[in-house]
Design a protein that fits this description.
Layout: H1 10-20, E1 32-36, E2 39-42, E3 47-50, H2 53-56, H3 65-75, H4 90-101, E4 105-109, H5 112-131, E5 139-143, H6 152-156, H7 161-164, E6 174-177, H8 182-189, E7 194-199, H9 215-226, E8 229-233, E9 269-272, E10 284-288, H10 290-293, H11 309-324, H12 327-346, E11 352-358, E12 361-366, H13 374-384, E13 387-388, E14 390-392, E15 396-399, H14 407-423
Parallel strand pairs: 3-13, 5-6, 5-7, 7-8, 8-9
Antiparallel strand pairs: 1-2, 2-3, 4-10, 9-10, 11-12, 12-15, 14-15
The protein binds pyridoxal-5'-phosphate (PLP).
Residues 55, 111-113, 116, 147-149, 200, 204, 233, 235-236, 273 line the site of pyridoxal-5'-phosphate.
Length: 426
Amino acid sequence: MTQTIGNISSKEAIAMEDKYGAHNYHPLPVVLARGEGVHVWDTDGKKYFDFLSAYSAVNQGHCHPRIVGALKAQAEIMTLTSRAFYNNVLGEFEQYITEYFGYEKVLPMNTGAEAVETAIKLCRKWAYEVKGVEQNEAKIIVCDNNFHGRTTTIVSFSNDENARANFGPFTPGFVRIPHNDLESLKRALLNEHVAGFMLEPIQGEAGVFVPDTGYLQAAHKLCKEAGVLFIADEVQTGIARTGALLAMCGDCTCEKHCEKQASYRKPDILILGKAVSGGVYPVSAVLADNKIMDVIKPGQHGSTFGGNPIAAKVAMAALEVVRDEQLSLNARRLGDLFRKEMNRVIEKTDLVNSVRGKGLLNAILINDTEDSQTAWNICVQMKENGLLAKPTHGNIIRFAPPLVMTEDELMECVSIIEKTLLEYKA
Ligand SMILES: *Cc1c(COP(=O)(O)O)cnc(C)c1O
């Protein structure tokens, strides 16, 4: 590659974002210009391992040729029809994704937050029309430290003050309980107005919190007994990230939905986004069976771009890649190796307290206060050493590389992380 990939320097790019863009993010000071597989390059041509994967959107690796090929081909034929008319790709996609995940119907949207909003609306409508909850009384149970997106309704039930403060008035109808706590769930389910329980099977943004073994199955069972919809937000954990097609799959590594695994509990509503398109195009999806999805009738919900022909083609290619390249299996294998290696590194330094995660969704806990700059400084140093990761919630660093990584590449990354941690000076 040439030294000047973009036509401006990184200094200029940062200055322009700072001057003309809203300051709603605090990026690491690196300006990316190109990506391929597990690597990205900055404007000076310096190469990095991507250890964030755009928050797990790029599970299939940057610019996967099959996915980009699908985008290019469809872009030359037809891009958008709106849903005022049928198009000749959407039905094929709907059949593909419902069979892939084992549901009767899908409702396609664009972003994760939109899919979460869709699931909330679906759950409420089901509550009034099927379950028989009193008008405007429906409640949805959510977990402390949840992250489901950024819309007004979604931040209404967040307990992250930074994400919430001064955005009120807030949408009512949500009950928050501690994550990974069956007793609290049992109590919350006693309320007859409860229509759904929505959770991230592993909390990503909160800092990669994996619930106890058996929690998800038990929570699913409690919901079933209470006649309450179990709504899994797998926007970040889904699509092979945690070493299974869905985090709800437990220990099954099938590249296809299956119910062979005794531990599998099918969510009543499944929310997908991010890697459903391999990070190539904004595609999200809400999956449910007819008895739930059929409450939505023409005119009651929609999106101009949702289910457009490019999105449909891109998502089919992206899911095909997950299956053909056995990304669940790879994420599981490399994830086990990564945590083993990190535990070896942790033995050598006081800087890190622990590593946790599942598959290739992992985090290390830095031995410092939540408001300290240590995790940020370590990430800046890792960047200098050729690996990009970002702190989440102060002293936690999330590690989530593309799932197409090889074992040799992972070991190279481990040595970059190890070197950075061992050489780090406060
Ligand atoms: C990223 C994320 C969302 C929101 O997705 P956007 O595409 O950013 O709107 C929702 N839920 C979870 C669990 C996420 O990680």
